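FIELD: query
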Amino acid sequence: MTRDYSRREFVAGCGGAGAAALLGGTAAANARGQDDAPPTRWNRTYEGEGNAVTNAAVPAVDDDGFVFAGARGPDSGDDDRVAWLYKVDGAGELVWEETYSRQSTTVAIDLVATGDGYVLAGNTSGGPDGGQDGFAVSVDAEGASRWQQSFWFAPESEDTVNAIVQRPDDGFVCVGRTARFEDGWVQRLDSDGGVGREDTYSGGDGSTLYGVANHPDGGYFLAGAGSSNTEDLQGWILHVDD
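FIELD: result
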C-alpha cells in the first residue's frame, strides 16, 4: 500500500522550528515571485455550463491561436459532465467551442495536435458496464468530430487514461492505469480510432502512467509512479518497443 504525503503532513513532521523556517521561506519566495513576475499579456476565464476545468493545451494547427481541452458540467457532483474543447486567438478571444460525450460523464485529460486537427483523450463513465473507460475523440481544425472511441482493459474496471501521443504511423498510444491489476495501462489506437493491442506494466503497488513520448530511436517512453518494497512512491520510467 502506498502513501502520498501531503504538504500539511510534511510541515507537521518538520517540528516547530523546521515548519516555521519552511513556511517563512515559502512566504518570502511568494513575495519575491510576485515582485519579479514578468508582466501578464492577458488573463481570461472561459465559462462552461456550471463548473468548467481546462486540462490540456496545444498550439492551433491552422493559425497562431491555441486549443484547450477539459470538461464542463453541473455546479455540483461529477455526473453529466462533457468533454470540452475550445479555441482562442492570439489575444485570448474565444473563436469556437465544442463538447463531446460518450456516457453520462466524459472528461478530456490530454490533447494532441495532428496535421489537420486534434485528438482528445480522457475518461468516460456511467455506462451499462458500471466502470470507467478510456475514450478518444478525433476532430478537425474547427472541432467537428471525425470519430469517437471508448475502450477498457476489462468490463466493470476503473480504467483511467492520463496522456496520449501520436505515433509515426499516425496511430495513437494512450496511457494510464487499470484498477483491475493496479498496473500501468497502455492502449494503442490506429489512425481511424480502431482499438489495437493493450499492455500492462507494473512498477510496484499503485502503478500509474502519467505521460508518454515518442523515442527518436523507436518505441516510446512511459513515465509514471509506483512503489516497490517501500511505502513511498517512486518515479518510474520505461522505454517500450512498438
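FIELD: remark
The longest strand covers residues 205-214.
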